[in-house]
Amino acid sequence: MIPELSRSSVIIREFSRVKETLRAMQAAGAGSLQVIADFDSTLTRFAHNGAQVPNTHNILEKKWLVNEDCSEKVMELSNTYHPIEITTSLSMEEKMPHMVEWWTKIHELLIQQKVRKDLLSHAVKESSVILRDGYKVFFDCLLERQVPLLIFSAGVGDVLEEVIRQNHVFHPNIHVISNYMDFDHTGVLRAFKGQLIHSYNKHEAAQSHAAGLKELQGRPNVLLLGDSLGDLKMADGIAEPQNTLTIGFLNEQVEERKEAYVNSFDVVLVQDETLDVPNAILRSLNRSLGESLSHTNR
After folding, report:
1. pLDDT tens across 42-98, in order?
2. Which entry of 38, 133, 266, 272 is annotated as an active-site residue?
3. How far apart are CA 142 and CA 81, in angstroms?
4. Which of 88, 182, 232, 246 could pair with 191 as two cysteines, CB 3.0-4.6 Å apart?
């Protein structure tokens, strides 16, 4: 039905379920669809030219934004907590206090550095962050069909928005729930706003924020994209979901994590740096998308 699903990088545990879900979503049309996506390593690439792509926190580690001591401490925190984040030997509940510690410490370091708002745009421009191949097709076609795109990110919302804006795809149908900086009257970071969002508490943010977005009401069908098992909870804010299709990007430690991903996501993409499969699925959901989706702009 969708040639891209036959690629060697694609793993599907229950193809019949995926097929049935796609048929139901296709019959309902674009007017019933919403797309929910993580950002770092989901809409952005995980790696490029042999190097790992920076996430939105990493982008702030410029020497003219933070000092060397801060960068070293951030790296130490990553080396300590990232293995905990991605291990399959701990439950989400067991991981959560560690994630709170990690995010809290990073935010405290950034606040101490008094990061300047006016330098964020330059930091993004000078970074090596890159959206996945096929991103323009993805963003533009959702806009064309007036399908809301809800981005849930445990990263830094201000940086995330700037990345999308500099790629010229920050459209009106996009809604972002993330960790936003709170700047003082001089444009210096003094705190982070609201509830802390990390990789394993997105269900709380979904229930408290996403459920109140009027644009998502009356759209019970969901295409969900994420790179973490915690991302599966991003659709928890939907009051009466009908059909949900989940796509998981398995970017690293493939053999160690493959079983958990295959048992959790409907479709697993193994070290695939493109949005080809989500774009093909969108094309299948509404044939009127066919012409615009066929012209891949990478």
Report:
1. 999 999 999 999 999 999 998 889 999 999 999 999 999 999 999 999 999 999 999
2. 38
3. 35
4. 182
Would residue 38 show up in a list of annotated catalytic residues for this protein? yes
Work out the burial of residue 11: count CB atoms within 10 Å of its CB; fewer than 13 is exposed, 13-18 middle, 19 or more buried. middle
Report angle CA 146, 147, 153 to the nearest 5 degrees: 130
- In the residue annotation, 182 being an active-site residue is answered as no
What's the mean pLDDT in 119-134?
97
Instruction: For the chain, state the CA radius of gyration.
Output: 19
Q: Which single residue is written with the structure tokens 């993409």?
A: 269
Residues of the chain with pLDDT > 90: what percent?
84
pTM: 0.92
Give the residue among 163, 152, 153, 132 at the shortest CA–CA distance from 60. 163
Q: Which domains does the chain have, with CATH numbers?
A: 3-47+130-294 (3.40.50.1000), 53-126 (1.10.150.340)
**Strand, helix or coil for residue 281:** helix
Give me the residue label for tokens 């499969």: 277
How high is the pLDDT of residue 211? Answer: 66
